[in-house]
């Protein structure tokens, strides 16, 4: 280097300087341009809410999500729909905690049994994050509002439907989403209380479906294998009725058992029209989603809202359906 003439060294230095300056300006501009672009295309939302589901892909929860997103869209709310791929209590709790850490304005979540849930709700509320339970309540938590079915009452209605639609001795098997879920426990409690009204009806056994259709098919199959005297089945979550029908088709029973299911997802409605399910209990998940977002906005604006916001429920039978559509409000008493 020492041997290079001074002029060449100055020229080289100038070239390196100019190239660096060019690169700095060019990439600097690109970076700022990108940032500006992001900022201008990014919508500024008034609120950020998290909707924590039991299972992201579940058809029933997708309806809650649709209702919530529709309402969020109307009020400039950013709604994040999160939860486990397959129902998993620990993952749900972890998701609630993660949403608290990311400082969302409100959490709408299914109620989960146990102390861990109550502690998380307490933590959220202490940090100024409002909490609404949807679909399943935990009344002794710090949640501000519950939006959803009165699950005890819904179970009671299922029991009444069975008493009304059957005669003679009835031995009942229950297929339930999960013995651990509060809403399923409440539905079973209501159902059992309704059965108390008749001596001719007896509850024989209960099996879990893990809220899947295949799980319900297996549960129904094993209930009927273990208790051949079962002549009625009650499915307590959205896919249980459909699964029960599959399960009994495997067995070839001499007589079709009486079946009462839950929810009005299209497949269940279709099976009622085909005479394979006798009745189902309605829930309005879209409405639950809409109302939860609406009340969450009210909470943000410090409005006072009655804690219990029960959506409607009724019994739907064949006569309430036409061409795959539920056309009446059903039997509400
Ligand atoms: C229940 C939900 C459950 C779903 C499962 C519904 O009847 O209300 O809690 O996640 O069934 O498919």
Task: Tell me what the structure shows.
With about 325 residues, the chain is an alpha/beta fold. About 45% of the residues lie in helices and about 20% in strands. The chain has 10 helices and 14 strands. It has helices at about 5-40, 60-75, 90-100, 115-125, 150-165, 180-195, 215-225, 240-250, 265-275, 285-300; strands at about 45-50, 75-80, 105-110, 130-135, 145-150, 170-175, 200-210, 230-235, 260, 280, 310, 315, 320, 325. A 6-stranded parallel sheet has the order 2-1-3-4-5-11, with helices on both faces. It has a 6-stranded mixed sheet with strand order 7-6-8-9-10-12, with helices on both faces. Strands 13-14 form a two-stranded antiparallel sheet. It is elongated. Residues about 30-40 have low confidence and may be disordered. Bound molecules: beta-D-glucopyranose.
Reading the helices and strands in chain order gives HEHEHEHEEHEHEHEHEHEHEEEE
Helix/sheet category: alpha/beta
SS elements, strand count: 14
Let me know the average pLDDT: 92
- Strand content is 15-25%
Largest sheet: 6 strands, parallel
| Bound ions, cofactors and other small molecules, one mention each | beta-D-glucopyranose
Alpha plus pi helix count: 10
What is the radius of gyration? 28 Å
- Broad shape: elongated
Relative helix content: 40-55%
Oligomer: single chain
Query: Which runs of at least 5 residues are low in confidence (pLDDT < 50)?
Result: 28-41
Distance between the termini: 98 Å
């Amino acid at each position: 280097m020492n041997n290079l003439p001074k002029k060449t060294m100055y020229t080289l230095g100038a070239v390196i300087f100019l190239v660096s300056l060019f690169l700095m300006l060019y990439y600097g501009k690109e970076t700022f341009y990108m940032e500006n672009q992001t900022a201008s295309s990014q919508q500024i939302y008034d609120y950020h809410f998290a909707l924590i589901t039991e299972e992201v892909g579940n058809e029933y929860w997708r309806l809650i999500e649709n209702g919530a997103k529709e309402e969020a869209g109307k009020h400039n709310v950013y709604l994040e729909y999160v939860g486990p791929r397959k129902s998993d209590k620990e993952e749900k709790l972890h998701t609630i905690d993660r949403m608290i850490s990311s400082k969302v304005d409100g959490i709408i979540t299914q109620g989960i049994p146990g102390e861990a849930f109550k502690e998380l709700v307490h933590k959220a509320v202490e940090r100024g994050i409002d909490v609404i339970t949807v679909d399943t309540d935990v009344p002794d938590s710090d949640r501000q509002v519950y939006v959803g079915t009165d699950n005890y009452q819904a179970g009671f209605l299922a029991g009444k439907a069975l008493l009304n639609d059957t005669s003679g001795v009835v031995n009942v098997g229950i297929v339930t989403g999960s013995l651990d879920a509060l809403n399923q426990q409440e539905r079973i409690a209501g159902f059992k209380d309704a059965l108390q009204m008749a001596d001719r009806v007896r509850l024989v056994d209960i099996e879990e479906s893990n809220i899947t259709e295949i799980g319900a098919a297996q549960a129904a199959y094993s209930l009927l294998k273990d208790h051949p005297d079962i002549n009625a089945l009650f499915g307590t979550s959205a896919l249980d009725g459909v699964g029960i029908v599959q399960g009994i088709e495997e067995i070839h029973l001499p007589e079709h058992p009486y079946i009462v299911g839950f929810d009005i997802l299209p497949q269940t409605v279709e099976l009622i029209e085909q005479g394979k399910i006798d009745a189902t209990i309605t829930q309005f998940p879209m409405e639950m989603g809409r109302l939860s977002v609406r009340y969450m906005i009210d909470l943000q604006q410090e409005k006072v809202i009655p804690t219990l916001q029960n959506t409607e429920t009724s019994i739907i039978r064949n006569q309430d359906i036409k061409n795959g559509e539920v056309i009446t409000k059903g039997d509400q008493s």
